[in-house]
Request: fold
Amino acid sequence: MKSLARCALAASLTLAALPGLAQTLTYLGQQVLRPDTSFGGLPVGGLSSLDHVAATGHYLAVCDDRSSLAPARFYELALDLRQFRRAADPGDAGVRVVAMTSLLDADGQPFGRNRVDPEGLRLDARRQLIYWSNEGQRTSAGLQNPTLRRMHPDGRPAGEFPVPEHFDPAGSAGGLAAGDRGIYNNLSFESVAITPDGQTVWTLTENALTQDDLPTTVAHGSRARMLSFDLDSGRPGAEYVYEVGPVPVPPAREGGFATNGVADLLALSATEFIAIERAYAAGAATPGTSPRTGRPTGNTIRLYRIDTRGATDVSGWPSLKGRDLVPVRRTLLLDLSTLRNDDGSVLALDNIEGISFGPLLDGKRTLVLLSDNNFNPNQFTQLIALRIDGPLP
Reply:
C-alpha cells in the first residue's frame, strides 16, 4: 500500500493544477461484475466508495459490510476503462480485484459484528494515511455515533477526528420525537473528500440532523450538513448546509419506501465539489431495466456541483431551526437517467455510492462511478466511466 500512496501523491498534485472541470460529461461505458465475484473466498459487494491511484490505474473501494459476512474491509481494484462498453449487458472485462485489507479497531483487531458501518474512504498520500467514514447507527438495537477515522494503509488505526456533539444521536430510535438530536439512521456520513491542496478533509451527512429538518420525501428535500477538519491540527472547521433535493420519482405505491441522499463527495478545489445525489423509490418506473430482474431499478442518480463560497458557516450551531442562513450553491451537472447505450437503450442505474477521478484518456480527464449492491442478488455492482469535456462556467 505504501507504493500506492506515493503514486496517489503525484495524482493529487496534478489535480491541484487542473483548470476546472467540465460542463459536459460524456458517457464512455460501463461494466457490471458477475454476481458470483469473490476474492479470498469472500463475496465482493457492498462497495460504497472509490478513490483513484492514477499512476498505477488502481482504485481503493471500501465495503460497507458491517462485519456480518466478513470483518470490515476495503479492496484494491484494477480498472481498464478502455474495455468499458456502452452496452446494456457489458460484462466485466477490465475489472479485477487485486487486494483486500481489513479495517482494524482501536485495539488493532478486526471490528466485531455490527460495531462499524464503513461508507466513505480517501487516501491522503502526503501523510501516508487513509480517512474513512463510519455512518453510526440510530435503531432500537442501540445508538452509535458517526465517526471520521484515520488509518494506516495496512488497516491499523491512527485515531479519529473530533466530530461535534450535535451529530451524535440522542433520544428516540426513530429520531422524530421532541428533543431528539443527531443523525437519522442510515442517513449519516457516507462521503469523504480531501481538498487538492491537502489541507482539509470533508464529510457530508446524507440528510439532515434530527434537530435540523426531516428526511427527504417526494414532497420536500432535507438540510444536510457538510463538516470539515483541518488535516494539520485535526480540529473541526467550517460547517455548511447542503440542501438535498426531494425524491424525484414517487414509489409505485403510496407510502412505499423512498429516499434521496448524498452518497459521496469529490473535491475539485478548496471550495468546490461534486456531490452524488442517489435516490431510490420502491417499484418506481425509473428509466432503464435491471440486468438482474428485467425491471426498473427504482434509482435516480444525479451529479451536482457544490460551491461553498458565500455560504453561512453553521459550525457551533446545535440546531438550524429558526436561523437565517445561506446554503452552499448547488448546480446540476448530470442526470444519469439521460444516458444511452449504443443500441439506444437507457443506461440502467443501480445504487451509485462512489465517485473518483479516473485516468486521462485521449488527453481528457475521466470520472468513474461505483455502485453498492447491498449484497442483494437483485442488485448489481456497476462501474460507469464518464469523460470530462470543456470547462465549467
In short: The first helix runs from residue 2 to 16. The longest strand covers residues 258-267. The CA atoms of residues 299 and 349 lie 6 Å apart. The domain at 2-389 is CATH 2.115.10 (Tachylectin-2; Chain A).
